[in-house]
């Protein structure tokens, strides 16, 4: 069985090209002007020096590059060929116009004089819009579309992505007048005729030429990105310029005056050399774009070389793209060294860099320097330190400095080896600092405090290359520093799961244990816990892991001390590692003071599955699932010492007529973005999730609500239905899930379990039963009414063979096979569109009589894929045999309800999945809360031999089906898109991949 993936989709469009060449002047630094080195341009490199060749940053096979996003190298999109770009095709941007029409606007050089060339603005369009690779581009004859007027003709370049408002498309072009940096605004109604605005969009004196300007909106209400044309009350704007004088990028945050068409920086945002930077190191000519699939703003930066031109020729390439985590805990800030008032005399734009230069990693301090020694040789003759240093200011506050120092990086004296630095705006109340570094042969990219400060360094070691490069954590301060990575212990994810080592049926349950670096490839270890003591003699049942301060993991679990009353007399126990220095945590000890919690008035046979603990008000707390008669209950327990636990006077939460609550889960989610929160997190912008697995239905339900800290109780929102009719993570074969906070990726992960739909005899014949489903990232939808979930991004590494479709019509009764992939182990993602909602069938009133907790499932059962509708059914036929004797359809059906509104239903129907009549073949269904204004629906399915996981509308609704075909197995599996509705459906965009098999020993 193969376990696989998720994908990230990007439209493969050129974003920005920067034609810079290096001009090294002695050892004073790299001066990358727009100077055309004709004597070097055609000197092709025959052999590439691999020593510093990056391993996972994109760059073509050889020669000079500055390509931003093309992962599959194609032929050049634009080359000098016309009078309007005879001497160069320089930077620009791509804009996708309505109707999926991409246009590139770029700077052309029409004359070599005055240096670096007479500049105009041109555009190019695809020769074939149906080609997803956009391999050929046309330069229309009406170029150039913009010529310089009063601007400096040799300083008029790098048009931005266009945005639309007030009936016009608008772009910015970078320029200068004397020493004043300028961004000129141009408007157009047709994208061909452009008119210059009467006043500059933005300008700042003494900043010189503004290269590669960028302008885009950002949301003040979360981490989602915004389309470049977005407007609204919760929107701020970013203006970025790459200063030719300093070779750094600077940005400000401000407002966009729509009436005057001008950008106005906020009073708190410093404009110019002393302003904010994306990156305080070797980072220039950046460009952003909006990714509509993931709803995020992406920044791509460029790191130029620090070598001479001759060394670039010897290496065979120049320029790369650059994109690694530890939490450091500081025992005390008392030893922080004083911030020297003399440093205020340093140039403001380089003050941090200068301090890093004079207070390097070898200069002992108080709190710091501490961090990494990257790309280090064996005897530390070469290394690139990335480190924090904490200073105490006159007003008893603290300043945190991040440094990345190339000075000791190489024994080559000809290399440019600068020290870079940037201050980190962080609250040290918790005495913690996080640092992540990406190390890739000749580049080190470092991110402090979740990306507040970033520094990129290009380095060229002579000894610390290939297998001779080492990585160290160091501390050269007098204060002790602790490395802390909760829930991600010493570099590994740990998965503990209920397992029968003796057979494929329930019984002999132990805590099996596997570890992984990426949650994709797994190494199985010996069981962590198995029955061995009086308090767990008859079973070690479910529980949770908690990592306490000081990197101390503890497992809480349910022990079975008697077989009667069935299913067993239940207590709560704990286990701790035998050796905390073992990153695999292979051996666990059950202390003699177990059990730590015994049932009191609870049902002794219904008292199990303790949650991860959280901390507030001086106590650690967790919840245990239970029931009283038919009322489901979550009991709260508190402890100050993690050993003596006291039951709260009232339940944490309960609900009548829901039966036993198994595997409860409680955690916070942010209302301001997709990032996850530590289980103990509190705050104004935090909501809470309470989930339970109902033994009576074998489904999971969750609510959103608030946590009453005074009463220590959970209260669901009024809009969140509690009980059988509530929300689910998954409307299919999904149970006993568990979430955890991943501090490395700052996300909340949910693990689900899919049990078998076979008989016990068939499970024994197969030799296995039950699987862990793909780990899913979960976060709060912007509506605040439900969670969204999506397979973790690490799974994309298993993608291989890919096929695509664009703008393909699927008419009534039509089936289109998706070929060129391995359909038995695949990932398919599609956006469907339709021209009208008029043919949607009416939602039947009689369906109101179906059980509410199974309403979607019931409708999918009576309106399956073979029942023709108006708008739908349309979707996938997965795990299909050659003649469709077997298949598992995953599909949408759209219904019309009163007030001209619509309901969208997602179905995953196992009924036709197998010719084996003994199999349990249910139809599953769930409604999708979606706005159909744009007449589009997205669907992604992960297909893996006997399981199909499907996600509608970016994770609003998910359904998992277990199926066991008899014909559609191995190479005999097919995958189709189908439409059995009257309304024609368009496959707007489809990506499908074969998936490699993950490693599991």
Automatic annotation (TrEMBL):
SUPFAM superfamilies: Arabinanase/levansucrase/invertase (SSF75005), Concanavalin A-like lectins/glucanases (SSF49899). GO terms for molecular function: hydrolase activity, hydrolyzing O-glycosyl compounds. This is Concanavalin A-like lectin/glucanase superfamily. Keywords: Glycosidase, Hydrolase, Signal. Residues 1-23 form the signal peptide. Residues 362-480, 794-994 form the Glycosyl hydrolase family 32 C-terminal domain. InterPro entries: ConA-like_dom_sf, Fructan_Metab_Enzymes, Glyco_hydro_32, Glyco_hydro_32_C, Glyco_hydro_32_N, Glyco_hydro_beta-prop_sf. It holds the Pfam family Glyco_hydro_32N. It comes from the Eukaryota. Belongs to the glycosyl hydrolase 32 family. GO terms for biological process: carbohydrate metabolic process. Gene3D superfamilies: Exo-inulinase, domain 1, Glycosyl hydrolase domain, family 43. Residues 66-322, 485-791 form the Glycosyl hydrolase family 32 N-terminal domain.
């Amino acid at each position: 069985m193969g376990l696989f993936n998720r994908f990230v989709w990007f439209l493969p469009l050129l974003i920005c090209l920067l034609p810079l060449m290096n001009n090294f002047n002695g050892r004073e630094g790299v001066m990358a002007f727009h100077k055309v080195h004709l004597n070097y341009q055609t000197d092709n490199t025959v052999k590439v020096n691999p020593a510093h060749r990056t391993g996972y940053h994109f760059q073509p096979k050889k020669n000079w590059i500055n390509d931003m996003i093309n992962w599959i190298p194609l032929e050049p999109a634009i080359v000098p060929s016309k009078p309007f770009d005879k001497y160069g095709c320089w930077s620009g941007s791509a804009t996708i116009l309505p109707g999926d029409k991409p246009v590139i606007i770029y700077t052309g050089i029409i004359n070599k004089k005055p240096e670096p060339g007479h500049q105009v603005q041109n555009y190019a369009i695809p020769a074939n819009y149906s080609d997803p690779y956009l391999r050929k581009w046309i330069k229309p004859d009406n170029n150039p579309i913009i010529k310089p007027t009063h601007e400096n003709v040799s300083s008029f370049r790098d048009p931005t992505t266009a945005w639309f408002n007030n009936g016009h498309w608008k772009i910015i072009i970078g320029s200068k007048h004397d020493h004043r940096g300028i961004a000129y605004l141009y408007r157009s109604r047709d994208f061909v005729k452009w008119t210059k605005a009467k006043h500059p969009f933005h300008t700042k004196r003494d900043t010189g030429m503004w290269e590669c300007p960028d302008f885009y909106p950002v949301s003040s209400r979360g981490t989602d990105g915004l389309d470049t044309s977005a407007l609204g009350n919760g929107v701020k704007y970013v203006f970025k310029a790459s200063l030719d004088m300093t070779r750094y990028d600077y940005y400000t945050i401000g407002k966009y005056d729509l009436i005057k068409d001008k950008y106005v920086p906020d009073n708190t945002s410093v404009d110019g050399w002393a302003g904010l930077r994306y990156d305080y190191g070797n980072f220039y000519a950046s460009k952003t774009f909006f990714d509509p699939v993931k709803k995020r703003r992406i920044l791509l930066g460029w790191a130029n070389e620090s070598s001479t031109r001759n060394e670039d020729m010897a290496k065979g390439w120049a320029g790369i793209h650059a994109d690694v985590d530890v939490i450091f805990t500081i025992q005390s800030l008392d030893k922080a060294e004083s911030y020297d008032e003399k440093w205020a005399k340093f140039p403001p734009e380089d003050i941090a860099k200068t301090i890093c230069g004079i207070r390097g990693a070898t200069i002992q301090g108080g709190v710091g320097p501490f961090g990494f020694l990257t790309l280090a040789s064996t005897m530390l003759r070469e290394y690139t330190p990335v480190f924090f240093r904490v200073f105490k200011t006159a007003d008893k506050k603290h300043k945190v400095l991040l440094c990345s120092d190339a000075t000791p990086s190489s024994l080559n004296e000809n290399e440019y080896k600068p020290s870079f630095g940037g201050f980190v705006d962080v609250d040290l109340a918790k005495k913690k600092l996080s640092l992540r570094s990406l190390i890739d042969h000749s580049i080190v990219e470092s991110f402090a405090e979740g990306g507040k400060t970033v520094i990129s360094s290009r380095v060229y070691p002579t000894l610390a290359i290939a297998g001779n490069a080492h990585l160290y954590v160091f501390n050269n301060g007098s204060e002790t520093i602790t490395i802390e990575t909760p829930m991600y212990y010493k570099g590994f994810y740990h998965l503990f799961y209920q397992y029968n080592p003796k057979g494929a049926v329930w019984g002999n349950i132990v805590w099996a244990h596997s570890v992984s670096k990426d949650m994709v490839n797994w190494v199985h270890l010996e069981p962590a816990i198995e029955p061995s003591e009086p308090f767990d003699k008859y079973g070690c049942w479910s529980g949770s892991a908690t990592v306490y301060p000081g990197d101390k993991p503890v497992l809480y679990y349910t022990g079975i001390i008697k077989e009667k009353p069935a299913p067993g007399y239940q207590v709560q126990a704990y286990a701790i590692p035998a050796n905390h220095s073992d990153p695999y945590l292979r051996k666990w000890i059950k202390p003699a003071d177990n059990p730590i919690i015994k049932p009191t008035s609870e049902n002794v046979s219904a008292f199990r599955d303790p949650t991860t603990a959280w901390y507030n008000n001086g106590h650690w707390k967790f919840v245990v699932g239970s029931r009283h008669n038919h009322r489901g209950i979550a009991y709260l327990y508190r402890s100050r010492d993690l050993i003596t636990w006291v039951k709260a006077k009232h339940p944490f939460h309960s609900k009548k007529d829901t039966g036993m609550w198994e595997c409860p889960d409680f955690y916070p989610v942010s209302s301001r973005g997709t990032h996850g929160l530590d289980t103990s997190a509190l705050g104004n912008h935090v909501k809470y999730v309470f989930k339970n697995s109902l033994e009576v239905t074998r489904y999971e339900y969750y609510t959103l609500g608030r946590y009453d800290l005074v009463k220590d109780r959970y209260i669901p929102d009024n809009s969140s239905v509690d009980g059988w009719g509530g929300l689910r993570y998954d409307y299919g074969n999904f149970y006993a899930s568990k979430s955890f906070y991943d501090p490395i990726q700052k996300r909340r992960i949910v693990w689900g379990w899919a049990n078998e739909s076979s008989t016990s005899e068939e499970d024994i014949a197969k030799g296995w039963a039950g699987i862990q489903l793909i780990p899913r990232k979960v976060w709060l939808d912007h509506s605040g009414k439900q969670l969204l979930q999506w397979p973790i991004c690490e799974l994309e590494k298993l993608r291989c063979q890919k096929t695509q479709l664009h703008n393909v019509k699927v008419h009534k009764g039509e089936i289109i096979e998706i070929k060129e992939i391995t359909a038995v182990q695949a990932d398919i993602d599609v956006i469907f569109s339709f021209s009208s909602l008029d043919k949607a069938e009416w939602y039947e009133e009689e369906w109101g009589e179906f059980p509410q907790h199974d309403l979607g499932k019931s409708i999918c059962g009576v309106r399956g894929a073979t029942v023709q509708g108006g708008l739908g059914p349309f979707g996938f036929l997965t795990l299909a045999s050659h003649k469709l004797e077997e298949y598992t359809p995953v599909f949408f059906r759209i219904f019309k309800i009163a007030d001209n509104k619509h309901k969208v239903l997602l179905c995953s129907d196992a009924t036709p999945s197998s010719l084996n009549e003994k199999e349990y073949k249910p139809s599953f269904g769930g409604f999708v809360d979606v706005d159909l204004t744009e007449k589009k629906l997205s669907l992604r399915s992960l297909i893996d031999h006997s399981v199909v996981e499907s996600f509608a509308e970016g994770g609003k609704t998910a359904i998992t089906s277990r199926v066991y075909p008899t014909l559609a197995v191995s190479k005999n599996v097919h995958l189709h898109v189908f439409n059995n509705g009257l309304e024609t459906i368009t496959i707007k965009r489809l990506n499908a991949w074969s998936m490699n098999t993950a490693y599991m020993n």
